[in-house]
Design brief:
The protein is an alpha/beta fold. The chain has two domains: 107 residues, ATPase, nucleotide binding domain (Nucleotidyltransferase, domain 5, 2-Layer Sandwich); 83 residues, Nucleotidyltransferase, domain 5, CATH 3.30.420.40. It has six helices and ten strands; from the N terminus they run βββαβαβαβββαβαβα. The strands form two sheets. Strands 3-2-1-4-5 form a five-stranded mixed sheet, with helices on both faces. α5 links the parallel β9 and β10.
């Protein structure tokens, strides 16, 4: 059994799976309360699935990009459980998790998260035949630069700021399929699927060296007199 943990943004999600097939899943609005809500919800999920924590044989964590605090909580919790249980750990891009939900369309999928300062974190993925490909790696950009990279009709998903969605519609027209409503949610079930592929291949991450994918250094406010 695998445990998938995603605390990348205000929307958090957990899943328990067996060889990537979801057995129980929980998604909720954590806001900035990841540190206090994550472990109680892991315990709750184990209870729902009627399993013990010792039944977990692998940990999958969304490694970012996302909020600095959320990612720090998720990755550190995943590492702690990995060491305590003696099981392998795999880190998966948060943007890839967001995109993978729409892999079956076979269209290019462009996940988007706000990066602040008027910028966005994004990447580009596509299912080609039976293989899932990362066409453009995770990076920070702006709407104008992103639109210049789009050639074909593309699905845009994720927690897309309204002004970004408007800019995509204006610049790309019918090339942009912007998903709204419940489609913006990231489900840990997709994280579990992606993670199982890595676990099955024994393509593990080193718990001692795995770090969140921030893409940008956190802002640091210096105290007066320092």
């Amino acid at each position: 059994m695998e445990l998938a943990i995603d605390t990348s943004t205000a929307i958090a999600s957990l899943a328990l799976s067996v060889k990537g097939e979801v057995q129980a899943e929980l998604t909720w609005h954590a806001g900035r309360s990841h540190a206090t809500e994550l472990m109680p919800n892991i315990v709750h999920l184990l209870h729902l699935a009627k399993v013990e924590i010792e039944d977990i044989e692998g940990i999958v964590v969304a490694k970012g990009p996302g909020s600095f605090t959320g990612l720090r909580v998720g990755v550190s919790t995943a590492k702690g459980l990995c060491f305590a249980l003696g099981v392998p750990l795999v880190g998966i891009s948060t943007l890839e998790v967001q995109a993978f939900a729409h892999a079956a369309t076979s269209l290019p999928v462009c996940p988007i998260l706000s990066a602040g300062r008027g910028e966005i974190a994004t990447a580009l993925f596509q299912m080609q035949g039976e293989n899932w490909h990362r066409l453009i790696a995770e990076h920070i950009t702006n709407v104008d630069a992103l639109c210049s990279e789009i050639i074909d009709r593309t699905i845009f998903c994720g927690e897309i700021p309204p002004e970004v969605a408007q800019g995509l519609e204006q610049r790309l027209g019918s090339k942009a399929m912007i998903l709204q409503g419940g489609a913006f949610l990231r489900r840990a079930g997709y994280l579990a699927q992606l993670g199982w592929k890595r676990l099955e291949a024994k393509d593990y991450d080193n718990p001692a060296t795995l770090q969140p994918l921030y893409l940008r250094k956190p802002s640091v406010t210096m105290k007066q007199g320092s």
